[in-house]
Automatic annotation (TrEMBL):
Protein name: Alcohol dehydrogenase
Domain Enoyl reductase (ER) span(s) in chain numbering: 10-313
Organism (species): Streptomyces mutabilis
This protein's GO CC annotations: cytosol
Keywords assigned by UniProt, alphabetized: NADP, Oxidoreductase
Pfam short name (any one): ADH_zinc_N
Listed SUPFAM superfamilies: GroES-like, NAD(P)-binding Rossmann-fold domains
GO molecular function, one term: NADPH binding
Length: 317
């Protein structure tokens, strides 16, 4: 089969298509014929060797796919690598059948980005109707879904985005206000101005100064859910800062839910995501679909911040 295989860490050029043996599924796994592979910022960290978990070379990246089972069922699945390929072995507890009225393009971000947005909001952030929440990268894969999920329960969404086009998209998706995130100068003050005061909760995935600015925008007893450091700048938040306003700060990494309640949490959220797409209350933004061999181009699109919504690979091309 064809697969994108990394033999070294580095830039997009290390992503090369090769013929490799088909994976051999274990007893707890099923072999999928992959039709679409999701491209995520976690894959950028894997490629550059800055991922939360180390990977051993050679390595096939990709953690979410759309594919078909040997019985012909169309499913989405979470993988632990191996997604950028024509076939992948996935755990039986981590794949879910796609409803007939949901397309592959609509389904591809739901396994990883959809579940990440859902659990950031409702499991970690505990967002409820009437609360004000900051959502970064609001036109991106996770952000565009999080904006809609938060708005549909009646939360007031303050969306961060770097261009006028992206900010307009966030408004179209249900954000109540938008803030230019291309500059970190006075970001906390601009968030509070847009929100009409401090916010109850925030998501954060940039790191560096943006993390500190986001904390400063929180109201007393505010909640912060951290799920990345896209800037590459790791930073610390002083305990004194958290104590001053009783701030709750929690990290989130989706793989920690893989074994939770034998996948019950993920099964429940995936069902909710499918229902929202089916009834039209959740719209998937297509950020571009690339042939498998053009994985490097897909990564460049993601890191250049030029893409909005979901970037994916078509394994049939």
């Amino acid at each position: 089969m064809r697969a994108i295989t990394m033999h070294e860490f580095g830039g997009p050029e290390v992503l090369t298509v090769k013929e490799v043996p088909d994976p051999e599924p274990r007893r707890t796994e099923v072999l999928l014929e992959v039709t679409r592979a999701g491209v995520n910022y976690a894959d950028i960290h894997v490629r550059s060797n800055t991922y939360l978990a180390p990977v051993k070379l050679p390595y096939i990246p990709g953690n979410e796919v759309v594919g078909t089972t040997p019985e012909g069922k169309r499913v989405i699945a979470l993988t632990q690598g191996g997604g950028y390929a024509e076939k992948v072995a996935v755990r039986r507890s981590l794949h879910w059948e796609i409803p007939d009225n949901v397309s592959d393009q609509e389904a591809v971000p739901l396994a990883l980005q959809g579940n990440t947005a859902w659990h950031l909001l409702f499991t970690v952030g505990r967002i409820s109707e009437g609360e004000k929440i900051v959502i970064p990268a609001a036109a991106g894969g996770v952000g565009s879904l999080a904006v809609q999920l938060a708005a549909r329960i009646g939360a007031t969404v303050i969306a961060l985005a770097s261009t006028e086009e992206k900010r307009q998209l966030a408004l179209d998706l249900g954000a109540s206000a938008v803030v230019d995130s291309s500059s970190e100068v006075d970001l906390a003050e601009r968030i509070r101005d847009a929100a009409g005061g401090p916010v109850h909760a925030a998501l954060e995935m940039v790191g560096g100064s943006t993390l500190h600015q986001t904390v400063a925008a929180l109201a007393p007893r505010g909640r912060l859910a951290v799920y990345g450091f896209a800037s590459g700048e790791l930073t610390n938040v002083a305990v004194h800062t958290l104590l001053q306003n009783s701030i709750t700060m929690a990290g989130f990494w989706l793989p920690h839910l893989y074994a939770a309640d034998r996948g019950t949490l993920l099964a429940r959220s995936t069902k909710g995501l499918f229902a929202a797409v089916s009834n039209g209350s959740l719209k998937v933004i297509d950020g571009g679909t690339y042939p498998l061999a053009d994985a490097a181009k897909a990564h460049r699109s993601l890191t250049s911040r030029s893409a909005t919504g979901k970037v994916s690979l078509d394994t049939s091309k």
